[in-house]
């Protein structure tokens, strides 16, 4: 089972959306929507370094490519 | 005979009352009378067709260092700001032992982006250690009023030394911090600032972040001893749930010790559209139970800035650009020089040559940005150069050591129909300007002018009188500033004369006026005719004066 498919069926938090936003410091930031097993969707904010590391971990060429990956991928970049 | 009479203006008193045609007389730095005043004066200012209002108060600044060489806090004064509150976010320049100066310089470099040379003997007149010493050092040259906070990180550093960035305080250390805070309040501090977020130049949490709740509670007990002084906080603003938890914590401290509290920043983002409204809802609940927890919100939109010196998430949709920009600098330069790589990057930017992606960007500045390009759109520059937009971005950067910043305006907190009603909420405190900070990232000046141009004239969320009240009497009341923020006999003659039809901020521009030839972004004002501080003209018709009538106030 691929990481992607595994994340969708697992009982752990999953990235369900990613969007760029302007941060307080004028830097572009990555806003991730994380869906928890109980259905609640929360937001995690990443700076450039962590954001790029996440994209690399997920082998994502676009923000859409982050969708479906486990929240654990975020930890690899921070 | 009065010292000054300002005649024939529309007097807006700061309390929200409808403006009235009247004269304002000034004597000995105070407002002496308001009405039809035919008597003589040593100086007359004609305010026909203009608004006469209390000077604006900026409650969230980091002018601590700038005030050492620039007592006018340029360009804040020319925007009509007559009082500033520095020392926010746990960081002030006193109390500070000489041996710890470099440590605090590092924090200022991180937060204010100020070159280290600005803190050398040549500019900083650095002889003080105690809070009174700092106030005495800046006071003689002040053209603007300063109501300083004392930083929690400085209090902690003084008492705990290196351990301030390593552990929680002991009971004895907390007691020592209480004594020191009490002394600072007696020497001119109007309150305490703390931060749960900031880091120093080595990316270590600032000292205040190592405090346990008992320490903050004990310090707030001191704030509550003399009528209730302000606690200012930077919460974990990137997480709405933690911010709401901090609102609850501040409310507890406010009620327990009878103190006002304020936190910042709160801003709106289309990526997290419910965040600000959820925070404001919790604030309303806490006010309803008697707490004072003032959220600070800025008026200006947030712009995104990037250069090819560092990879930015702005380019996240262009993976090969990101990969190239993540190369070490020499390899990156070589890649951008390579014809094949350039062709790939330009192709990736889109069939329009990158016009949709890059065309609307503006060349913002940076140390090496060509003056002829600053402030202009990339699409216009590209056409002039006979290039596509992506190619122009790459080449302008290559030609200038990659140190050219590009600006994407209105990246967040920019939807007027959402921001206006939030700013008009009586529980929202207009602030978070950050004047004196983020020097090389963006301009933090002109938020007051933008309030009038965007939210009075354009959206109508405020009447003229309500807007003036929001940044004068309301601010003075929230912070407990005595005799300021209103046009009333007996009050300090801090006054701004402006054109309600044109007051605004001008375009952002880079200037090199920071000691050591440091660069910062500023915005000049328009529509502000005359600014008086404690009864003396500090700015008039486009020029600063020699007046040095500012004061340490509280």
Q: Your description of this structure?
A:
The complex is a heterodimer of chains A (78) and B (554). Chain A has 78 residues and is an alpha+beta fold. Chain A has 3 helices and 3 strands, in the order H-E-E-E-H-H. Chain A has a 3-stranded antiparallel β-sheet. In chain A, strand 2 and strand 3 form a beta hairpin. The radius of gyration of chain A is 12 Å and the shape is globular. Helix content of chain B is 32%, strand content 21%. Chain B is built from 18 helices and 25 strands. Chain B is globular, with a radius of gyration of 24 Å. Chain B starts with a strand and ends in a 10-residue tail after the last strand. Chains A and B meet through strand 1, strand 2, strand 3 and helix 2 of A and strand 14 of B.
Biggest β-sheet strands, sense, barrel of chain A: 3 strands, antiparallel
CATH class of the largest domain in chain B: Alpha Beta
**Share of helical residues of chain A:** 25-40%
Strand order of the largest sheet of chain A: 1-2-3
- Beta-strand residue percentage of chain B: 15-25%
Low-confidence stretches of chain A: none
User: Using CB atoms under 8 Å apart, which protein chain pair has the greatest interface?
Assistant: A-B, 23 and 33 residues
Secondary-structure content class of chain B: alpha/beta
Q: Largest sheet of chain B at a glance?
A: 9 strands, mixed
Q: Give the terminus-to-terminus CA distance of chain A.
A: 26 Å
Give the end-to-end Cα distance of chain B, rounded to a whole number of Å: 30 Å
CATH superfamily of the largest domain in chain B, by name, is Metal-dependent hydrolases
Number of structural units classed as domains of chain B: 2
Q: Tell me the number of helical segments of chain A per DSSP (H or I, 4 or more residues long).
A: 3
Radius of gyration of chain A, in angstroms, nearest whole number: 12 Å
Secondary structure tally, helices of chain B: 18
Average pLDDT rating of chain A: 85
User: Which descriptor suits the 3D outline of chain B?
Assistant: globular
Overall shape of chain A: globular
Structural class label of chain A: alpha+beta
